[in-house]
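Key result, reporting period 2: structure in, sequence out.
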């Protein structure tokens, strides 16, 4: 039996155990499997999946490269049900729901970056 299907099945049950600001521009999430994920907050804002940021009909990103300033910061983070996080950003944006699966896929730790590059 291959390890990849097991890993995906387990990821469906993963939830954040702890969410913390690592530094001014980095968010950290500890998942229930113990994985310590890291996220540049600018990347999270650029990857917002809401209809304001992604055209609902075409799927085209409405956020252009360089549009999000380096000073972007989350000012509030809320759990939405048992499936997503919602960020209130200092640019006034707050409509994006980030499903746990999306967040897990956006992890920028060394281990995840090398897996995604493979």
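The corresponding designed sequence is given below.
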């Amino acid at each position: 039996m291959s390890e990849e299907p097991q890993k995906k099945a387990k990821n469906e049950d993963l939830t954040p155990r702890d969410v913390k600001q690592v530094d001014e521009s980095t968010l950290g999430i500890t998942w229930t499997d113990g994985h310590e994920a890291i996220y540049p907050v600018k990347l999270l804002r650029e990857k917002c999946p809401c209809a304001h940021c992604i055209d609902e009909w075409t799927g085209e990103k409405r956020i252009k490269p360089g549009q999000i300033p380096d000073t972007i910061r989350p000012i509030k983070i809320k759990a939405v049900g048992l499936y997503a996080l919602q960020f209130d950003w200092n640019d006034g944006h707050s409509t994006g729901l980030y499903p746990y699966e999306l967040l897990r896929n956006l992890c920028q730790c060394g281990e995840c970056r090398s897996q995604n590059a493979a």
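Residues 1-10 have pLDDT under 50 and may be disordered. The chain has four helices and six strands. This case is discussed further under Risks and Mitigation.
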